[in-house]
Amino acid sequence: MNQLVRFETNIGHVSESDSHIGTVNPSTIVIDSTSYSLDSWTNVPPSIIALTPRRLHLQPLHPVSLTRQLIESHFPPPTYVHYNSLPPVVTVAQNFDSLGFAADHPGRSRSDTYYVNKDTVLRTHTSAHQADIFRENASEGYTISADVYRRDAIDRSHYPVFHQMEGARMWDRKKTPGQDIAAAIWDDLRRLPKHGAIVEDLNPTVDPERNPQQVRYHSLDEVEALATHLKKTLERVVEDLFSKARQASTVSGTADLDLENPFRMRWVEAFFPFTSPSWELEVFWQGDWLEILGCGIVKQDLPINAGVPDQVGWAFGVGLERVAMLLFSIPDIRLFWSRDKRFLSQFSTVERICRFTPFSKHPACYKDLAFWLGSSSSRAGGLQSNAQDFHENDLMEIVREVGGDLVEDVELVDRFSHPASGRKSLCYRINYRSLERTLRNDEANALHEGIREELKKKLHVELR
Length: 464
Hints:
Number of strands: 19
Distance between the termini: 41 Å
Radius of gyration: 24 Å
Largest sheet: 8 strands, mixed
Number of helices: 11
Structural class: alpha+beta
Strand order of the largest sheet: 5-9-10-15-14-13-12-11
Helix content: 25-40%
C-alpha cells in the first residue's frame, strides 16, 4: 500500500489540499499526479516532493507572484505567450541534452540535481522547456515562470526550491520582408516605451574573445539590432520595478536608498551556455552594484535543433526570489514559504510594492558539527565519481531533512589535516533559528543530534 509522504516544519508544511502530490512505495513515486519508477539514481527526498504543489509564483498576492506579474506586464499578448503551469518533472534530455550540456557537466551530477530516476529530474531551470516552446512556435515571444529545484547551500539567500522567469523574443527570416531582420527589429524598437534611468554600457556589443558574435548565423547589423532591442526592453522592465520599490521606500519613510538621484543601471559582459554574446544587467541599490538578470542572443543551435532554423532572437532569465527580496526588503528566503498571516497579509496588491515589516526577531542558536572524512571522499582528496564520496551538498541535504526551515544557515568554519596521518577534518557551524517563535535549546539539541546520526549513517564519516 502506498504511504502518503508527510514532511512538516514550522514554515513549509504539507496541507490536506496537497495530499495528492507525494505518494511513495519502495518502487514508485507520485509527483503532480504522475507515477515514476525509482532506481539507483533516485535522490529526491520527501521534503522536496512536499513542496512541489506550492507554486508560489501562482499564489495571487504572494511577493514571488507579484514580482512575476509586474515583469509579465511588460510582455503583452499576442506577441508574448505566458507559460506558468508547466510540470516540474522533466526528462534528462529536456533539462540537459536539448541545451547542449556536456556529458561531464557538473550540473548533471546527483550532488547538484534532484533525480526522480536516471531518465527524469526535477527541472533545475526554466530553460528545460525552451526547446519544446521553440518547436511549438506558437508566438513571436514567450515567458516561462516556474519552480525549479537544486541541491544547494543553506543560508538566508539559498533554498532548494526557488522560482525562475525567462523570456525570449524571436524573428523569423521567412516572415520578414526581404528577410531584413535588422530593419524589422529597428522598426519594432522605435515603438518600445522609453525610460529615464541612467545606463552605463561601456563595452562593445561583441568581442571576438570575451563576447563573440555567432558569425556563421548572424550579421553584425543583426547582432547590434538584437542587442539594442534586448537591452532597451529589459532596462524598461527593471527601471519600472525599482521605481516602484523607491516609491515604497518614500512611503515607508526609510532612508536606506539614494532617492535624490536618478536610478542607475549598467551592462556587463557575461557568459551563458545558451546565448552569445551575453550580458548581465546590474542595478545600483542601497550603495552597491547588484546583478539582477542575465541575457543574450540565442545560440542558433537551439532553434535549429527545435526545427525552426529561420528564427533568430534574444532571451533573458531572472530569479524571482532574488528580485522580490530586493523589491520588498525581505531578509530571509525562508519567509517566502511561510504560511504565517503576519507575513502574507503584508502584500495586498500588484499595483504597489510594500516594504516588508519584520514581525519578530528570535534569537539564534549555534551548534558545531565536526567530523573526520574517510580516505575515499572528495574532501579527502579522492574523486567525486562514486556514491560514497563526500560532497557538501549531501551534508546540506541531511541538515534540511532533519532540521527543515528551523535551520537558518550552515557555514564551514574550520578544516584540519592531521600532520601524521593526512586525514582531513571539517567543522560546520549550524545556526538554528525559527522565523516565528523562540526555539528552545533542547529542541535545537534534538535536531542537532538527529543530524549527527544521519550524517554518520549516510555519509560514513567519523564524528568528533
